[in-house]
Amino acid sequence: MKLTPPRFLKPMNKFVVALQKLGIPAGPAMVLTVPGRKSGLPRSTPMTPFEFDGGLYVVAGYPGADWAANVRAAGVGTLTRGRRSRRVRIAELTAEDARRVLRVFPAQVPVGVAFAKRSGLVKDGSADEFEALAGQLAVFRFDPA
Question: In whole angstroms, what is the distance from residue 29 CA to residue 46 CA?
Answer without folding.
Answer: 6
